Amino acid sequence: MVTWVVLSVLVFGLLLLALAMLSVLGGLAGLGRAAARTQSEVAQAPTLQASLADLQEQLASLQEHAAGIQSQADARRARQRG
Question: What's the CA dihedral at 20, 22, 24, 25 to 10 degrees?
Fold first, then answer.
């Protein structure tokens, strides 16, 4: 009788341990997907940095162009007044 109680407690404990392992392994799968996604983003970072540098250069060029247009407009207004 005592043997059956001990065996049932051990089996119940093993079942609980198996359920806990399954939940942990399920969480690890999600963690693996997140790690793969992060690695993909890290791999894209240099391309994005190069694109950002190009955009910054274009912005600087546009700012210079806008300043030139503004100075031309100011000069025309000054000629029209004067």
Answer: 160
- Alpha-carbon distance of 28 to 36, in angstroms, equals 12
Global confidence as pTM: 0.53
Question: What is the rounded distance in angstroms from the CA atom of residue 19 to the CA atom of residue 23?
Answer: 6
Per residue in 17-73, pLDDT (tens digit) is: 999 999 888 888 888 899 999 999 999 999 999 999 999 999 999 999 999 999 999
5 burial type by CB count under 10 A (0-12 exposed, 13-18 middle, 19+ buried): exposed
Q: Could you give the CA distance from residue 34 to residue 11 in angstroms, rounded to a whole number?
A: 35
